[in-house]
Amino acid sequence: MEGFFQRYLSLYRPLISKLNELLSDHGLSYSLWQVIFYLNNNGPSTLVEIANYYNVEKPTITRRVHRLEEMQIIKPIPSEDRREKIIQLTDLGKEIYRTCRIKITDLENHVMEGITKEEQLAAYHIFPKLQENIRADNERE
């Protein structure tokens, strides 16, 4: 289907801009939100786990984590392996997650207006398959 990815990319930037606008009330950006989102859904985690999940380099996550630590949204927790940093949300981080999640859910509902549940479900299942195909292609190189 020619043009599929062009359509996706034309949606991506405006959506990220809207998310950044929503999150800015809390001094956050979408890239910082990704760490908060991951920790909320997965619990205490290492930076490597987060970097692998988002398919980014560890230094990218390290910069985000430092910023979130400065904001007291996340904190490190003791680990037996000092080479591996484990982080978790603080109480403030959990509250910010809840507040932002409501705003993001409202945005998601607005963006999905006029799209049937079946169409939403189809897209929901297609994107992980596309992601897996891209990862498999990267591993072949």
Q: Gist?
A:
The chain is mostly helical and 141 residues long.
Question: Helical proportion?
Answer: over 70%
Total beta-strand segments: 3
Give the overall shape: globular
- Whole-number count of domains: 1
The biggest beta sheet is recorded as: 3 strands, antiparallel
CATH topology (fold) name: Arc Repressor Mutant, subunit A
Distance between the first and last residues' Cα = 24 Å
Which structural category fits the helices and strands?
mainly alpha
CATH superfamily: Winged helix-like DNA-binding domain superfamily/Winged helix DNA-binding domain
Radius of gyration: 17 Å
**β-strand amount:** 5-15%
Based on the coordinates given, report the CATH architecture.
Answer: Orthogonal Bundle
CATH class: Mainly Alpha
Write down the overall mean pLDDT: 92
Strand/helix succession: HHEHHEEHH
Instruction: Catalogue the unreliable spans.
Output: none
Q: How many helical elements?
A: 6
Order of strands, main sheet, comes to 1-3-2
InterPro entries: HTH_MarR-typ (IPR000835), WH-like_DNA-bd_sf (IPR036388), WH_DNA-bd_sf (IPR036390)
Domain HTH marR-type: 1-132
GO molecular function: DNA binding; DNA-binding transcription factor activity
Protein name: MarR family transcriptional regulator
Set out the fold topology.
Blueprint: H1 4-23, H2 30-42, E1 45-46, H3 47-54, H4 58-70, E2 74-77, E3 86-89, H5 91-111, H6 117-140
Antiparallel strand pairs: 1-3, 2-3
What does this structure look like?
The protein has 141 residues and is mainly alpha-helical. The chain has a single domain (4-115), classed as Arc Repressor Mutant, subunit A (Orthogonal Bundle), CATH 1.10.10.10. 70% of the residues lie in helices and 7% in strands.
